[in-house]
Amino acid sequence: MNDTTLLWILGAVVAGVVIAFVHPSSPSGAAPAAEPYVDAGPDLALSECCTTHLSAEGYDPEGGPVSVSWSAPRGCFDDASSLRPHYTTPAVSSTQEVVTLTLTVTNEAGASASDTVLVRVRNVVRPSTQPTCGMAAPLPRYAVLLETPVAPPEEHERAEPTPRTALSLCPNIPESAPPAGRMISRCAALAIDEGSSIRLDGRVWDPDCNLAGFSWSADKGSFDDPTSLHPVYRAPMTTDCLGEDVRITLTAVDRCCAATSTHLVLHVSNLNHPPTADAGADLIVDECSTVHLTCTGTDPDGDSLSFRWTAACGRGSFADPTVLHPLYTAPSVDRCDGEEIVLTLTVTDPCGLSASDSIRVHVRDTAEAAVPPRSP
Questions:
Q1: How far apart are CA 75 and CA 120, in angstroms?
Q2: Contact 301/270 with Cβ under 8 angstroms?
Q3: Which residues does residue 107 pair with via DSSP β-bridges, in sequence order?
Q4: Is-contact 310 268, C-beta < 8 A?
Q5: What is the dihedral of CA 169, 228, 226, 267, to 10 degrees?
Q6: Residues 82 and 50 in one domain
Q7: Is there a single domain that holds both residue 314 and residue 264?
Q8: Is the backbone of residue 280 left (phi > 0), alpha (psi -120 to 50) or beta?
Q9: Which of residues 116 and 22 earns the better pLDDT score?
């Protein structure tokens, strides 16, 4: 190797080191992902319980898709995954309170960036007294409240802006019952049959007079209008023999995003009907012979049934007495005129209701039947 070749090799090595130092590569060999661009918008000054339309920007400089997420310690967004949601300020007790809204934008590579908006929320001074208000129609005259109704305070209480709720449910209220609000007790029977309907009555009152809405929910069953204070609730069907409890909840929300809920527990009763059994027609069989019994057993509720065959005095035997159509083997008989045996089918549903039916099986004495009749 001559000197010229050696100089070329050394030059190439030095150039490679310089390039690697100036343009280091990422551990994976790919260029690092660029952070998204995010601008949450200008700071704001708003009154308490005020709704405003935010206008922010966020995108991936490389043109890829991004996900958006707003967060705030107080107040609420109508859609926290939108760049331009509506934000409602909370109620504040001091003259002014600063709430920080944070917008985070994340691209498909996982890189994210955040920006904040400072919202100065001003307290709004209201009169010390104000009339009762709410969005509820009066309860029926003889409704019995499940919870003590909350009367409007004589003086406005800023420390408790949460709306208050009460429920009633009395399908059969006697005419002698006192007017609503006078009798605070539970109804005689908070239970309805499966599949049946009942009308609910709710009362909602908000001390700040800024109720935004309310809704009903239940872990089972359905409402004709869950946004009405007096919806019709339809109970679900139940397979539990003892019935089951359903939790029904009324939730109210005010314009400051304060919410409250109250609930009642309604027992849904199982309507069980007894099954039917038909053991079939009477039979004539020879002694010690086997016959396939034909019968029916049904349940009007569609429940699965259990079966049990028995023979009077234990005469004869079943291949399997717990099936609907068993094989029955007649016993031997020693009476010339044969013997009658009663077979009984009992059908039972899962809740214990049962039905029975019987047939008569005439068992012939085959030895007697084989003797030819005497000539006169």
A1: 12
A2: no
A3: 66
A4: no
A5: 0
A6: yes
A7: no
A8: left
A9: 116
- pTM for the predicted model, two decimal places: 0.58
**Any bridge partners for residue 276, and if so which?**
298
**Per-residue buried b or exposed e for 337-352, using 16+ beta carbons within 10 Å of the residue's own CB:** ebbebebebbbbbebe
pLDDT at 1 over 90: no
Q: Which residue has the tokens 């200008």?
A: 42
pLDDT one-digit tens code per residue, 164-217: 655 555 444 333 433 333 332 334 447 889 998 888 878 777 766 677 788 899
Token output for 308: 């049990």
232 with 176, same domain: the answer is: yes
Q: Could you tell me the two tokens for 103?
A: 């917008």
CB within 8 Å of 11: residues ≥ 6 apart:
none
Regarding whether 304 and 249 lie in a shared domain, the answer is no
* 287/318 same-domain check: yes
Amino acid at 296: T
Angle at 239 (CA atoms; ends 299, 279), nearest 5 degrees = 15
What's the total number of domains in the chain?
A: 3
Q: What is the 3-state secondary structure (H, E, C) of the chain?
A: CCHHHHHHHHHHHHHHHHHHHHCCCCCCCCCCCCCCEEECCCCEEEECCCEEECCCEEECCCCCCEEEEEECCCCEECCCCCCCCEEECCCCCCCEEEEEEEEEEEECCCCEEEEEEEEEEECCCCCCCCCCCCCCCCCCCCCCECCCCCCCCCCCCCCCCCCEEEEECCCCCCCCCCCCCCCECCCCCCEEECCCEEECEEEEECCCCCEEEEEEEECCCEECCCCCCCCEEECCCCCCCCCEEEEEEEEEEECCCCEEEEEEEEEEECCCCCCEEECCCCEEEECCCEEECCCEEECCCCCCCEEEEEEHHHCCEECCCCCCCCEEECCCCCCCCCEEEEEEEEEECCCCCEEEEEEEEEEECHHHHHCCCCCC
Domain membership of residue 362 as a residue range? 276-370
By the 8 A CB rule, do 166 and 139 touch?
A: no
Residue showing tokens 């006078």: 182
**How far lies 185's CA from each of 150, 174, 370, 374, in Å?**
15, 14, 82, 89
